[in-house]
Write a structure and sequence with these properties.
Structural class: mainly alpha
Oligomer: single chain
Helix content: over 70%
Distance between the termini: 29 Å
Number of strands: 0
Shape: flat
Strand content: under 5%
Number of helices: 6
Length: 139
Amino acid sequence: MNVFILGALISTFLSNDATALILTPVVFYTLTTRLRLNPLPFMFACTFIADTASFTLPVSNPINFLFTWAFSQAQDLGAFLKHLPAASLLAIGLNIILFVLLFRKQIPAQFEPEEMEDRARLLVKMAGISLCLSRLAWL
C-alpha cells in the first residue's frame, strides 16, 4: 500500500517519469537486498501507479497538457478539471484493488518496518528528501 501511496504522490506532483526513475529503483533495491522479498508485485505496482496517478493533475503528465489545451479551446476546461481528480482517485483505487487481488499470495500479509535495516531506511529518506528538493527547484 505504501508503494501505491508514495507512487501516487510522486506521479501527481512531479510526473509519471519521476515515479519510474526515482521510486522504482528504491523499491527494487530495498526489496531485493534488504528485505529479501519478491520484487515482481511491487515493480508492477510502481509501473501501474505511475501511469494511473499521472492523470490526477494537468501537470502530472505531458499528455495532460494536450487535454487541458483542448478543453480550454472548447471553453470546457472547468468541467474537465472538476471531474479529473474524482476520476483519478477512482482509477487509483481500482488499481490498488486489482493488485491486491492479483498478487495477494505473493505479498506478505504483514510487514514490520522494524525489519528494514538502517541503510534501507536511510535510502528511503534520501529519496524523499531528493524528491522534495527537486520539487522546490521547480517552483
